């Protein structure tokens, strides 16, 4: 997947082997379909502020401790485009972390 030529940046955080179609898959292990191998607890996403249209994370945030989850949500907040803030709320609703 050529990320630099994507019209819309859609992220699937912690995608594992089940990356959402059309999304950039990010995981800490190199599974088939993972586009960026990155431990999100330690590294920052390689995207600019306000550049991401949507973020999907199924069964991801519950693997983080409270401090890591807060750090991740703050980081994700800076990447999501202001007009797509409802996508950030969907990310929160889809994860039972507390």
Structure notes:
With 98 residues, the protein is α/β, with parallel strands linked by helices. 23% of the residues lie in helices and 13% in strands. The radius of gyration is 12 Å and the shape is globular. It starts with 9 loop residues before the first strand and ends in a 5-residue tail after the last helix.
Biggest sheet: strands, sense, closure?
4 strands, parallel
Give the overall silhouette. Answer: globular
**Helix count from the secondary structure assignment:** 2
> What is the first-to-last residue Cα distance?
34 Å
Tally the beta strands.
Answer: 4
Output the structural class: alpha/beta
Q: Which radius of gyration do the C-alpha atoms yield?
A: 12 Å
Approximately how much helix is present in the residues? Answer: 10-25%
In summary, what is this structure?
The protein is of the alpha/beta class.
SSE layout and pairing:
Elements: E1 10-13, E2 24-27, E3 36-37, E4 54-56, H1 66-79, H2 85-93
Parallel strand pairs: 1-2, 1-4, 2-3
């Amino acid at each position: 997947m050529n990320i630099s030529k994507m019209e819309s940046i859609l992220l699937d955080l912690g995608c594992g082997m089940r990356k959402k179609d059309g999304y950039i898959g990010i995981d800490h292990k190199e599974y088939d379909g993972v586009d960026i191998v990155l431990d999100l607890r330690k590294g920052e996403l390689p995207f600019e502020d306000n550049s991401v249209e949507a973020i999907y994370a199924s069964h991801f945030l519950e693997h983080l401790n409270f401090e890591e989850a807060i750090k991740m949500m703050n980081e994700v907040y800076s990447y999501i485009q202001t007009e797509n803030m409802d996508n950030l709320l969907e990310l929160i609703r889809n994860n039972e972390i507390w």
